[in-house]
Amino acid sequence: MAEEVKLFGMWASPFSRRVELALKLKGIPYEYIEEDLSNKSPSLLKYNPIHKKVPLLVHKEKPLAESLVILEYLDETWKNNPILPQDPYERAMARFWAKFIDEKLLPTAAKVSHSTGKEQEQGVEEVHQQLKILENELKGKEFFAGQSIGYLDIVAHVLFWFYSAGEASGVNALTTEKFPIIYEWIEKLIKIDAVNECRIPKEKHQDFITLRRESLKSASK
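RESULT FIELD:
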């Protein structure tokens, strides 16, 4: 079953890295296929004709899109090294906070990176409020999942992206002074081999973000 797993991804996508991290933590062998999103492969378009995006997992020739959906599928299909909580309530809450990250925090952060002036200042304040809410979930814990890394930690792994995005844009919404608990969590994460294997190279990522911002500015003129 394991050798039939393929992951179509893109090196700068935090959502692709999220799935890679889950695969590594669960010890699932897989083939990684890097996609050029400006020239998508026939295989990506064949397996994901609706969204035409990454990450895309193919298992036994059956495709799955959307990183949160893929994480749950991996955990239900490979029972070893579970990443979701066993308790139904805790499992539901992990899903709730995952949606908070993807549907509230990340869209707000994206608006900050594409705005200027007062609009950007207001966006940064909103990001701070949402990060503080998320940080409260970490109080008194080693990881979001408890004593070891789990589903919500994998989802929140996207916060590494805030480093590069902040430095590239000159607007760093995630600082040690404002969010010490999140920074302690990050320090614990980077001691895990699988996490480091899935980290986006900082300088390469900053260059990518800068080029993307410049292209968006040019397109809006």
